[in-house]
């Protein structure tokens, strides 16, 4: 018998298990910064009523980036 639906895909994103908390936070900050830049680029191609939605998404991304950046600042500094 043929299956009606295929099996769901296996996760294609795998995080390095040795990634430190600080490096993960910095990477998240970079990803959010990139998403914010992409959202702002998309805004220019939309109608005015849709721009407000994009601006709201950009604002949420910037808020998330600020919290992540602050969490990195709160980490204890390692001295060599």
Could you explain how this protein is built, in words?
Helix 1 runs antiparallel to helix 2 (48-74). The chain contains two helices and no strands. The mean pLDDT is 84. It is flat. The chain is mostly helical and 80 residues long. The protein has a domain at 23-73. This is DUF3077 domain-containing protein.
The whole-angstrom Rg is 19 Å
Global geometry: flat
- Estimate the helix proportion, in percent: 55-70%
**Contiguous helical run count:** 2
The main β sheet shows up as: none
Sequence stretches where pLDDT stays below 50 over 5 or more residues: none
Number of strands: 0
Mean pLDDT: 84
Topology pattern, helix = H, strand = E: HH
Instruction: Compute the separation of the termini in Å.
Output: 63 Å
Percentage of residues in strands: under 5%
Secondary-structure-based class equals mainly alpha
Protein name: DUF3077 domain-containing protein
Organism: Pseudomonas fildesensis
Short description, anyone?
The protein is an all-alpha fold and 80 residues long. 62% of the residues lie in helices and 0% in strands.
Write the topology of this structure.
Blueprint: H1 21-43, H2 48-74
Protein name: DUF3077 domain-containing protein
Attribute tags:
80 residues, 62% helix, mainly alpha, 2 helices, flat
